[in-house]
Amino acid sequence: MSGGGAPGPEPMPDPELRAAEYALGTLDAQERAALERDATRDPETAGRIRAWERRLAPLMGAVPPVAPPPRVRAALLRALPDGAAGAGDQLRHLRRRLRRWQVAAAGSGLLAAGLALFVAIGPSRSPAGGRYLAVVQGGGAVPALIVRVDTRTGLAQVRPVGADAPAGRSLELWYVGAEGPKPLGLVGGAPSQVRLPQGTAPDGVIAVSVEPPGGSPSGQPTGPVIYTGKLIAE
């Protein structure tokens, strides 16, 4: 994402958000592997992942069991070494992966709703308040963006997930409050940090519009708004 001022330092990943995304299955293969390596060395990382898996267990239970096709089951059994001591561990791992697949197959919006719900009811690490999260989506199977706002520091962490710009166009991020839309910058492909406008309030909305290359020429949305998300207190 780019804005009008000089770029700030690359934001550090939020450990709680990374653990939540791991439990939901939104990290890519490289990110998952890196977090799993961290978990083997760091008990706090492993504990965060276990805590999010426990919080998300009701979401998994809401999805009806789906039996794999016979050919898939047969292929999995053939892949297991006969009589190997680790076969039980592999079966347990496969069962966990099957449950994640069932959650992913539950339908459009389940992933975003689950993340918003469980982040909102999870234990707060900011007793003084001021931290909010928006799952920005447009009806797809996964969120377009996850935006974490801290009104005390005046900064927001933006993590693209499924945002997709039309060919030859840019996506621009906006905070929409009582005074109307205020630009936050362009949506890129990597996590970024942006500065919040003056007057950011918790009852606002985060929105994404389609704009000409480089963003809106007027400081106001000129194209269709394709993604929105309401701020939820953490």
Automatic annotation (TrEMBL):
Q: Does the keyword Translocase apply?
A: no
List the coiled-coil residues.
none
Keywords of the record, alphabetical order, are: Cell membrane, Membrane, Transmembrane, Transmembrane helix
Q: Does the keyword Cell membrane apply?
A: yes
Q: Which domain of life is it from?
A: Bacteria
- Topology in membrane: Single-pass membrane protein
Q: GO molecular function terms here? A: sigma factor antagonist activity
Cited Pfam families: RskA_C
Q: Which GO terms describe its biological process?
A: regulation of translation
Q: Which GO terms describe its cellular component?
A: plasma membrane
PANTHER family documented for this protein? ANTI-SIGMA-K FACTOR RSKA
Protein name, entry field: Regulator of SigK
* Organism per entry: Methylobacterium phyllostachyos
